[in-house]
Design the sequence.
């Protein structure tokens, strides 16, 4: 018999809330704005949600995720895509680790397409696209790139180049044609769009708001994003992500077993 | 998709190995040497990661590869890029026409999600990768060094709407892909044992690995 949520023991089921919690202002824990081009990292605990809000409708938020307690376990793009038969992320999707567990899930999203395959620019390609802009001449308006932002933040937690894998680019869309050629698309973008990342594990989150590698805008003009942490609890028994496909039902079981 | 045949003669190869389904294979090849992977019986996925042989911290990067060519699939002319933005290898011949960058390797843990918790105990590519690096005393590689791989001969189309599927292979018996090393590289292969989807035609089969010295 296939194991599913309904076949779990009463004790295992009782560890899952009956319903998922919707956002309310009184649930907010903290909020801050990450300027364009900058990088951030922090621990987000299981049961808290990080809401990313694209203030201008032109932001890109490159993101990597690690199990905080065992940083060998990390976000895995192929496992995430294969489990859900998708190349993009949006509402109802889960972000899987390489250990078959759900690091975080997306119960709300007003953008509709988050890129999973394009990666980040490094220093050399940023120079090629945007020219040189050093701190010496430009102070904090210098050109920063996603790869260096990742490496700086990862280093603060004892991680480094070994730990850089394919990242998510929240708010950015690059769609593929029949031959797999990628095209950057902004038609769906609007100021104020947000995505909720509900953490199902204790996770080290690493973010960069440097430009997306396929952004055709020739001017270096990365945009800010607001981070709003709120107390959501974990996915309920009725949750949209749990029920979006049988794979996610099993992914949540794997994740919940880790904390029983 | 471009079909380019090779003129190299297998009788002149300096390495001619057969890798059974479900087995790992690891080999250092030198700059200028040419590696051919032959899909002997057809529809076989060959999960492959490349490393700079002198420094395994520099390794195949799917995002650098996708950025360099502006597209998802690999074929003749594609450069396989490293995490430092340098070409590891160039695909010089290809009779299959399309190879996957997104599907990654099967793992016991992801199988449990995709096909049911009881499939955790079926053999998977990640176990082959883990065993190959655990047996290898020379390079000191660990789980963190196992990054997203190329799937030669595998067909994972992405639609303009962003759907991704595993399709029956477009490969066939005897099709091959051939690549020239642009630096000294370590090749790590898992000949895929997946039985739960059509990536191996539900029948994993051996592949042949040929290496030629520079002309």
Sequence:
């Amino acid at each position: 018999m296939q194991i599913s949520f309904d076949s779990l023991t009463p004790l295992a089921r009782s560890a899952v809330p009956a319903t998922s919690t919707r956002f309310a202002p009184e649930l907010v824990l903290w909020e801050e704005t990450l300027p364009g081009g900058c990088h951030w990292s922090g621990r987000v605990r299981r049961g808290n949600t990080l809401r990313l809000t694209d203030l201008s409708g032109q932001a890109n938020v490159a993101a990597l995720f690690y199990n905080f307690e065992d940083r060998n376990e990390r976000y895995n793009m192929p496992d995430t895509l294969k489990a859900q038969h998708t190349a993009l992320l949006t509402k109802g999707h889960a972000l899987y680790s390489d250990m078959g567990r759900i690091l975080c899930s997306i119960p709300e999203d007003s953008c509709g397409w988050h890129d999973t395959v394009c990666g980040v620019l490094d220093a050399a390609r940023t120079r090629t696209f945007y020219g040189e802009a050093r701190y010496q001449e430009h102070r904090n308006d210098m050109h920063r790139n996603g790869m260096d932002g990742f490496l700086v933040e990862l280093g603060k937690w004892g991680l480094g180049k070994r730990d850089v894998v394919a990242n998510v680019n929240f708010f950015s869309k690059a769609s593929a044609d029949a031959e797999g050629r990628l095209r950057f698309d902004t038609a769906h973008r609007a100021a104020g769009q947000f995505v909720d990342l509900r953490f199902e594990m204790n996770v080290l989150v690493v973010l960069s708001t440097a430009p997306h590698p396929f952004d055709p805008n020739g001017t270096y003009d990365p945009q800010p994003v607001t981070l709003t942490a709120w107390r959501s609890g974990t996915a309920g028994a009725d949750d949209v992500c749990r029920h979006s496909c049988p794979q996610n039902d099993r992914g949540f079981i794997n994740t919940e077993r880790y904390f029983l | 998709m471009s079909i380019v045949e090779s003129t190299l003669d297998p009788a002149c190869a300096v390495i001619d190995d057969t890798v059974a389904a479900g087995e790992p294979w690891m080999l250092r090849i030198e700059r200028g040497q040419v590696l051919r992977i032959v899909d002997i019986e057809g529809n076989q996925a060959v999960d492959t990661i490349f490393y700079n042989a002198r420094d395994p911290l520099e390794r195949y990067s799917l995002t650098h590869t996708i950025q360099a060519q502006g597209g998802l699939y690999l074929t003749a002319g594609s450069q396989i890029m490293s995490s430092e933005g340098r070409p590891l290898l160039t695909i010089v011949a290809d009779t299959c026409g399309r190879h996957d960058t997104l599907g990654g390797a099967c793992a016991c843990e992801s199988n449990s999600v995709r096909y049911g918790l009881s499939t955790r105990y079926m053999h998977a590519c990640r176990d082959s990768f883990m065993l190959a690096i655990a047996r290898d005393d020379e390079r000191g590689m660990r789980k963190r060094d196992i990054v997203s791989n190329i799937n030669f001969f595998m067909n994972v189309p992405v639609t303009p709407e962003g759907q991704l599927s595993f399709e029956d292979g477009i490969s066939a018996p005897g099709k091959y892909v051939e690549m020239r090393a642009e630096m000294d590289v370590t090749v790590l292969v898992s000949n895929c044992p997946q039985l739960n989807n059509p990536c191996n035609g539900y029948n994993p089969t051996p592949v042949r690995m040929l290496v030629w010295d520079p002309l």
